């Protein structure tokens, strides 16, 4: 998801939505070639040595099940996007949670990075491939050793997960579905920030309490509810 622009310059929150070095460790079509070249250069430096890394060829599909004797850090699935047994919350709950996060940013003037990171990961995982199962399947075929490609593919031949032996970092490789999901997240978040700016003014960010925002939202919902009830016609005889 690195490469998806989180645009909200009017609020001072321009971000790359999925700079996964910072957020959820993701590689995209946009940065894959550059990242692959960097890893390959690292392998190339080992080519004339007895280092097991000399046997590796990053992203070489034909080596996906060739075991290589290198030490590697096992993936931490708490920080890598993968399919979960069930979504963290319903779509309606996600929608409200994203808006709540935007409201807190508007009230405080700064984003809660930890909360943002966790929520955008949970939201995206509803469409993520089962990277954990893919990894475990590969490990069974290599006897628990890293494969010489340092990469993991799904049954259709799509790259899903990679490992950098030098940095010992795991990176998920984005799918089109995850890209689309990320756009939904940023759209909800930005729309709520824009709504708050419209309601409270351009200079209100960081100067309106979260409690006031909540009270105003509650009052607006009550007003809408009363209006809807007032427009209801009882047709019973």
Topology:
Blueprint: E1 5-6, E2 15-16, E3 26-27, H1 32-44, E4 67-68, H2 91-108, H3 113-124, H4 131-141, E5 146-147, E6 151-153, E7 159-164, E8 169-173, H5 176-200, H6 210-230
Parallel strand pairs: 3-8
Antiparallel strand pairs: 1-2, 4-5, 6-7, 7-8
Helix pairs in contact: 2-3, 2-5
Features:
alpha+beta; 237 residues; 10% strand; two-stranded antiparallel ribbon; 42% helix
- List the helices and strands in order: EEEHEHHHEEEEHH
Q: Which stretches of 5+ consecutive residues score pLDDT under 50?
A: 1-23
Strand order of the largest sheet: 3-8-7-6
- The percent range for helix content is 40-55%
Structural class: alpha+beta
> How many DSSP E strands?
8
Strand content: 5-15%
- Give the mean pLDDT: 84
Question: Can you offer a commentary on this structure?
Answer:
Helix 2 (about 90-110) runs antiparallel to helix 3 and helix 2 (about 90-110) packs across helix 5 (about 175-200). The chain has helices at about 30-45, 90-110, 115-125, 130-140, 175-200, 210-230, and strands at about 5, 15, 25, 65-70, 145, 150-155, 160-165, 170-175. The protein has 6 helices and 8 strands; from the N terminus they run E-E-E-H-E-H-H-H-E-E-E-E-H-H. It has one domain. The chain has about 240 residues and is α+β, with helices and mostly antiparallel strands. The model is unreliable at about 1-25 (pLDDT under 50). Strands 3-8-7-6 form a 4-stranded mixed β-sheet.
